[in-house]
Design brief:
Blueprint (H helix, E strand, L loop, with lengths): L2 H18 L3 H5 L7 E6 L6 H5 L6 E6 L9 H13 L4 E7 L3 H6 L8 H14 L1 H5 L4 H21 L2 H10 L2 E7 L6 E3 L4 H12 L3
Parallel strand pairs: 1-2, 1-3, 3-4
Antiparallel strand pairs: 4-5
The structure holds cobalt (II) ion.
């Protein structure tokens, strides 16, 4: 696509929005009150708004390679803090996806330079669930399961933060783990057991 086309698309998009609601952008500029924080993969095929069917203003979004919540990543930690404590979102979602290149790269034995420390977080997920994963003989099925377990572990990482623990206690904020299936377009709720995870990790990670 040519860059010029992008700006032409933008013009058309403005026209379409104004046709439906002439105050669309006036209202949009008043502020945001999203109910969701979405943390997903940077993969170009997995756009939060499209797969959720939502409009600008409805979801606060953070994306990185393989949808990781890393304790020392100032970027994701700032996003979580701002969305939970200031925007007061009601739901925080970790959304992984099948066919994730980041997860696939983490499963290979090769030096990927600067990506090594980032992808090591996924190797840590593998190590935590080694017995379950090694028992899956089909490589594709094992890869899919690692993608799901990575989502689950990133939910655990979320629940380790003070912001999430406090918001859950004070106003019932919930954490969700989803997987987007690129092959079918389906969004799958992994139905992670939030209260159980919280109870399990509070013994060691309680901050509130
Ligand atoms: Co990905």
């Amino acid at each position: 696509m040519k860059i010029k086309q992008v700006f032409e698309n933008n013009k058309l998009w403005i026209e379409e929005k104004l046709k439906v609601d002439k105050d669309y952008f006036t209202n949009l500029s008043k502020g945001q009150e999203p109910e969701f924080l979405y943390i997903g993969c940077s993969d170009s095929r997995v756009t939060a708004e499209d797969i959720m069917g939502v409009q600008p203003g409805e979801v606060f979004v953070h994306r990185n390679i393989a949808n990781l919540v890393n304790n020392v990543d100032l970027n994701v930690m700032s996003v979580i803090n701002y969305a939970v404590r200031h925007l007061k979102v009601k739901h925080v979602v970790i959304c992984g996806h099948y066919y994730c290149g980041g997860v696939k790269a983490a499963m290979q034995s090769s030096d990927l330079g600067i990506l090594n420390p980032w992808l090591r977080n996924i190797r840590d997920v593998y190590r935590l669930h080694k017995d379950e994963l090694n028992a899956i003989s089909d490589e594709g099925a094992r890869y899919n399961r690692l993608i799901e377990l990575n989502v689950q572990e990133q939910c655990v990482n979320l629940i380790k933060t003070a912001a999430i623990q406090q918001a859950h206690k004070e106003r019932g904020l919930l954490v969700h783990g989803w997987v987007f299936d690129v092959h079918s377009g389906k969004l799958i709720d992994l139905k992670i057991d939030f209260p159980k995870i919280l109870e399990n990790i509070m013994e060691i990670y309680k901050l509130e």
